[in-house]
Amino acid sequence: MARSSDVTQVDGDLTITHLTKRFGDFTAVDDLDLNVPQGSFFALLGPSGCGKTTTLRMVAGLEEPTAGSIAIGDADITFSRPYQRPVNTVFQNYALFPHLDIYENVAFGLRRRKDGDVDRKVKEALELVELQHVMRRKPGQLSGGQQQRIALARAIVNRPAVLLLDEPLGALDLKLRRQMQLELKRIQTEVGITFIHVTHDQEEAMTMADTVAVMNAGVIEQMGSPIDLYESPNTAFVANFLGQSNLLPATVTGADGDDVLLSDADGAFRVPRARVAPGVDVGTGRRVLVGVRPEKIHAELLTVAGDAPSHGNFVEGTVASALFTGVSTQYEVATRGGDVIGVFVQNLRPGAVFDPGTAVRLSWDAGFAFILDGSEDPNAGALLDDEAAD
Fold this sequence. Notes:
The protein is an alpha+beta fold. It is elongated.
């Protein structure tokens, strides 16, 4: 392992092993193992109190672990001082020096290190964030989005091995936040530095990250690509927190080839065995949760009750509410069996909206559904206050 004094020269994967942080009787991070490949864009996603910010602070050296280790490449940085680590952090509040112009804000760290190539590096960093034309302005003369990009330039100008982003877009309005998501991804791709983005915003995580780890109560519930997590959640918490899901209690009635057969009060369903979450028992008689995303469901006016559509599972019910959002209309449908199912229908034709009280049939392809453990709370992760930092 490298000595602490050598740490600023290292690079490599970020490896977290059995990392634990307790505050008295409360365990904020619980025996966490994690490997973040060098040069990747990684997101820690979760609600308030899940442990994501505490994890970031331990990597930054702002919190000392109760147990476990943190390494970058071959260098153990578990107990290194923050300034000895090849790590920089971009915060939500930017933390720019108001009395210095933009050039000097970006140059600050380089001057402290007595870098001999300050001018070139500052101008390259400002060019990267496309703000070289404001280098002689003060932070107060810039917009929130510009200030965030300057904070990013200052953080990457000395090329840390790992850049930590702590809810960096939280103070921006929706339109600017979406623009900055694309900018952050572009910048990370150009500089090749490992980015670790801590956020409660599912859209941010899915838009930018190569890999997303969903945290809950100090542990990682599931980790993978945004597509894998969204299409194949392993738990009710992940299914509900990463987007929206309908999770319907059902009973396994048997099998038909590669499909699991199920039933509930609304009728019979089938789901491919490949869509069963790891470790879930789908033996006959087992209680499970059948999940399907709202946008995967086809809604049509109910004309003849009981006729099974050719394209998959179906239920019948009545529109309880309809919310027009422009791109789509979001429905809640009360089924005859007593469930309430959310449905998102793209607005392809003017005026094609079902009014409350309309009888409809909802259907979905069997391959769009997934099966989770029936002992889980179907509302886990759905009703969380995820706006505050943990």
